[in-house]
Amino acid sequence: MLSLDQIVEKLKEIAGPRFVSTNPIDKINYQHTLAYGAYKALPDVIVLVESDENGCHPLGRLLRFANEHRVPIVAKGGVGMGISSPLKGGILLDMLGMDKILEVNPTLQYVIAEGGASVYAIHHALRQHGLMLPNYGTYGPSVIIGAMVTKGGIGYGMTRYGWIADMVIGLEVVLPGGETVRLGALANDGTEFGPFQKWVHIPDLLGLFTLSAGSLGIISKVCLRAIEGKREWLHDYCYGFRREQLENVQEALLQLVKGEVVYDIHFTDHWQYFWPMEEGLYDKKQIPEEAWFFLKTILFARDQEELAYKEKRMKAIYEGQGGFEIREIAEKGMGARAQEHGLHGWPDFHIMGPDGWCSSVVRHTGMFAVVSLMYPITFLKLMYDFDEEAKRECGLWDPEHSPQHDSYVTRDLAIKEETFVFYNPYDDEDVARLRQWMGKIQEFSNKKGVVWTAPTLSTKGPYPYERLGNAYDLVKQIKQFIDPNNILNPGALV
Asked: Which of 86, 115, 166, 283 is the least buried, fewest Cβ under 10 Å from its Cβ?
């Protein structure tokens, strides 16, 4: 068995000396996740993977070496974000050097990018051709496409089009032994027709690597379906509901998703806007005091005729359930705010910028942790009420912990819930309260049958796996076949 020094020397030989680090400060910086302070795991060594102008990269040799010597290896999903805590140590791959947008085909409406390409950069490249991803992310340039595919990436448009993984029509994946395999549309790359659809002559294998948390292979290329889209086709609205109207919210969401009226709906609550309102980012006089739930809604319409129909239908549903329009949020908390800051009018800046709700909350509270799970819209009231009760019991239901919800409404008639707690990661008592709340959510939600998306499934106990029955047994067999030495993100999937 090789020593760490021997491993580091070999990695320097493969990737280059300046691309390998064992610096303790680097390790701490790279460990950050959406649950910083709650889950800490440091790599033994960090390797930046970089491709040259011809697309050549050392990824295959790195995996072959790690597999031969049984060294755990995890691909980083973007510094400061993502799923990539190295639970078993070993090598952490920084994929940001594989960041090229390889092709945009405006006629057949697809884009091919390297696995480390910024989702933000992919959007920018598509916009030059009047295209957009149907589901577009909201966290700026730090999030990379490979991570979005392997761990259920989300974004605006999820209500109409689904997950980022639903946009994938082709993948190139490097397996643990160093072999490269092309799947779906990319299996047809190199022919005269080229990539154009995910269905080829063999069974669909794309799903084997989507949502796999990097446990079966490292994505080196992604081919994504795009649609025609312009900023002026996206129209922003916000409707409010009182705390006691949650059942009305459920019914409104069901009607809107079933009727395919809306492009995107975000379900948020009072806590998300408490500190932004306190800072004066919003005019309190323009936001009704009784507003507790906020449904930030986007309509996609190419002309006034299409907009008039969708707007009429949306308003009838919201107002029929007792909702009331809140223009202040739509104008300052959605696309318009981004437009003021020169970001081409795409809803991104309002989350993380100096006037964004997240930045405002962090200034008053601290670091945040998020629990992310999915369940049917019909259980929204049950799940929200339980979360409030659990946070009250744990001493977290107050402005200082900003226990907000920022949840996606999906085309599957489901809620992709993002429930937050802001806390002090250096205060052991605060961290204990956070863990207590997470434990309550885990126990309650597991019994109900939620689908977990974050933190990593391995933190949720055995039940989420066991309830899958022999489907999970098959996953374990596939993992054993592809990765017999269990080097790829061990502990994240099996």
From this structure: 283
pLDDT, tens digit, 9 for 90 and up, residues 328-367: 998 887 765 544 544 444 554 456 666 667 778 888 888 8
The residue extents of the domains of the chain are: 101-228, 231-453
Number of alpha helices (DSSP H) and beta strands (DSSP E) in the chain: 18, 19
- Crossing angle between the packed helical segments 246-258 and 380-393, to the nearest 10 degrees: 140
Phi, psi of 345 (to 5 degrees): 75, 15
Class of domain 231-453: alpha beta
What value does the CA radius of gyration of the chain take, rounded to a whole number of Å? Answer: 23
User: What is the token pair recorded at 391?
Assistant: 């946070």
Helices 428-448 and 380-393 pack at an angle, to 10 degrees, of: 150
Task: Please report how the helices 304-320 and 246-258 are oriented relative to each other, as an axis angle in degrees rounded to 10.
Answer: 150
Print burial letters for 357-389: b (CB count within 10 Å at least 16), e (below 16).
bbbbbbeebbbbbbbbbbbbbebbeebbebbbe
Name the fold adopted by 101-228. 3.30.465
- Predicted structure pTM score: 0.90
Give 275-324 pLDDT, tens digit per residue.
999 998 889 999 999 999 999 999 999 999 999 999 999 999 999 999 99
How many residues belong to the chain?
A: 494
Model pLDDT, residue 278: 92
